């Protein structure tokens, strides 16, 4: 079990820094954003599982030589209110930390979800009072404000796309169509849930720079995916033009650029608007389908690794 | 539900328009007057009361229980609510706004200048398609 614990620890370390750092600098994600999103999810999940798994296995090695005997012993010894003979403080500490970390991550996800849900309800209430429906566009409302903004709010029954008067004044009909299709793609593909999971991860591990790196990368990928989806219905140049018009209007920035963000430290390209326009106008072709399948298969294999390690320990015993 | 939503909207509009707090009956009368001949439906005071308690629950309406009948007023002005909404939309709050996906997030001044350059390479459409 010690060997397996070390293997999982090595995997956790690889997924905590070098792998995501390389992925966030790679060029291919913009050519296959859907696949890249799968890879990020696999890295985050596998990283968490290996970290917790490694700590668990190391701690359990005090209780037995294979996972099943060890869990049995853990339950009976702990219920008897004792510690196993010969257990070191590192093993007990490792076991405790594994449980705390797992609980912390799960509770944080739940807390993020509840807080977001509350904010979303409040926001929907305000939108319902302050905006008017757009004739001919289902679930679309216009807000009487000069700043050019467009966004979507997900909801099981009440998802809505909001456009401001400022935006309507800037864009022509085709550009507006492109913006609406982009927002619909976000709603259809449940991007809010993906973003929420990564935000929760970032909030849960604030001392873990890679979590914020992942969040930034995923935010950009989700935009690329929605752009590609919109491009199936509208001309990519109309969408690019909408991005450039809104981005250059100057009133979209809510404050000074965040120079102290982790992205600035890690030199990630955060110029998402420019990247989106380049992709839409003369972006490199999509990654070949065979490459995409291979990458997705690798991501799935990665996700299965911690379970496979555990299973092999049980089989050997 | 959609009708209740419309009613919430009308009631809030009436409260925002009014200079002083209103009773449910006054609200019902002003709504009847406003929508005369449009819906053609009678609006019961009990319905107004139901909607008002929903709005109170949502924190949008404040009820003065010290007087009979109860007086209702909007918790904040229309402008303040709009400001709250825009604050959330533009993500100016210290913690990131987590509820919504904006078409375009924050753009730094340098990037805005780049984008302006893209647009100004004449004329607008060909500038981008080049």
Automatic annotation (TrEMBL), chain A:
InterPro entries the record matches: Beta-lactam_resp_regulator, Peptidase_M48
Domain Peptidase M48: 146-205
Molecular function terms, GO-annotated: metal ion binding; metalloendopeptidase activity
Transmembrane segments: 40-63, 96-114, 293-316
Required cofactor names: Zn(2+)
Domain of life: Bacteria
Cofactor binding comment, as recorded: Binds 1 zinc ion per subunit.
GO BP annotations listed: proteolysis
Key words of the record: Hydrolase, Membrane, Metal-binding, Metalloprotease, Protease, Transmembrane, Transmembrane helix, Zinc
One Pfam family from the record: Peptidase_M48
Entry similarity comment: Belongs to the peptidase M48 family.
PANTHER family, alphabetized: POSSIBLE SENSOR-TRANSDUCER PROTEIN BLAR (PTHR34978), SLR0241 PROTEIN (PTHR34978:SF3)
Name assigned to this protein: M56 family peptidase
Organism for this UniProt entry: Labedella populi
From TrEMBL, chain B:
BP terms from Gene Ontology: negative regulation of DNA-templated transcription
Xref: Pfam families: Penicillinase_R (PF03965)
Family matches, as SUPFAM superfamilies: Winged helix' DNA-binding domain (SSF46785)
Keyword Glycosyltransferase listed: no
Keyword terms of this UniProt record: DNA-binding, Transcription, Transcription regulation
Recorded GO MF terms: DNA binding
Family the UniProt entry places it in: Belongs to the BlaI transcriptional regulatory family.
Identification of the protein by name: Transcriptional regulator
Organism in which the protein naturally occurs: Labedella populi
């Amino acid at each position: 079990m010690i060997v397996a614990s070390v293997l999982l620890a090595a995997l956790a370390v690889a997924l905590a820094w070098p792998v995501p750092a390389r992925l966030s600098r790679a060029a291919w994600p913009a050519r296959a954003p859907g696949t890249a999103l799968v890879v990020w999810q696999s890295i985050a999940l596998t990283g968490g599982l290996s970290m917790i798994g490694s700590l668990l296995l190391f701690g359990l090695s005090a209780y037995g030589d294979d996972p099943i005997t060890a869990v049995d012993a853990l339950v009976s010894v702990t219920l008897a209110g004792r510690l196993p003979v010969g257990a070191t403080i590192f093993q007990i500490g490792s076991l405790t930390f594994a449980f705390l970390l797992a609980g912390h991550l799960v509770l944080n996800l739940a807390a993020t979800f509840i807080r977001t849900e509350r904010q979303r309800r409040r926001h929907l209430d305000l939108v319902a009072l302050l905006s008017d429906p757009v004739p001919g566009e289902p679930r679309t409302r216009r807000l009487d404000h000069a700043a050019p903004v467009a966004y979507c709010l997900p909801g099981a029954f009440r998802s809505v796309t909001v456009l401001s008067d400022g935006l309507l004044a800037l864009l022509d009909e085709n550009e507006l169509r492109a913006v609406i299709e982009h927002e619909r793609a976000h709603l259809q593909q449940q991007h809010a849930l993906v973003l929420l999971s990564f935000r929760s991860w970032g909030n849960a591990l604030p001392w873990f720079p890679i979590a914020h790196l992942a969040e930034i990368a995923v935010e950009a990928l989700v935009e690329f995916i929605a752009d590609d989806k919109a491009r199936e219905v509208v001309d990519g140049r109309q969408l690019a033009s909408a991005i450039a018009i809104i981005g250059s209007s100057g009133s979209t920035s809510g404050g000074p650029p965040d120079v102290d963000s982790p992205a600035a430290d890690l030199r990630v390209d955060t110029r998402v608007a420019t990247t989106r326009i380049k992709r839409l106008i003369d972006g490199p072709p999509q990654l070949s389908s065979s490459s995409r399948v291979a990458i997705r298969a690798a991501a799935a294999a990665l996700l299965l690794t911690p379970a496979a390690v555990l299973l092999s320990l049980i089989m050997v015993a | 539900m959609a009708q209740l939503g419309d009613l919430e909207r009308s009631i809030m509009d009436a409260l925002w328009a009014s200079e002083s707090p209103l009773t449910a009956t006054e609200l019902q009368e002003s709504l009847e007057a406003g929508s005369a001949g449009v819906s053609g439906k009678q609006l019961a005071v009990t319905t107004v009361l139901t909607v008002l308690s929903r709005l109170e629950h949502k924190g949008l309406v404040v009820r003065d229980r010290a007087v009979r009948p109860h007086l209702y007023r909007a918790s904040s002005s229309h402008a303040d609510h709009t400001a709250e909404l825009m604050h959330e939309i533009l993500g100016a709050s210290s913690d990131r706004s987590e509820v919504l996906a904006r078409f375009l997030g924050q753009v730094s001044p340098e990037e805005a200048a780049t984008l302006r350059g893209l647009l100004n390479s004449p004329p607008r459409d060909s500038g981008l398609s080049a």
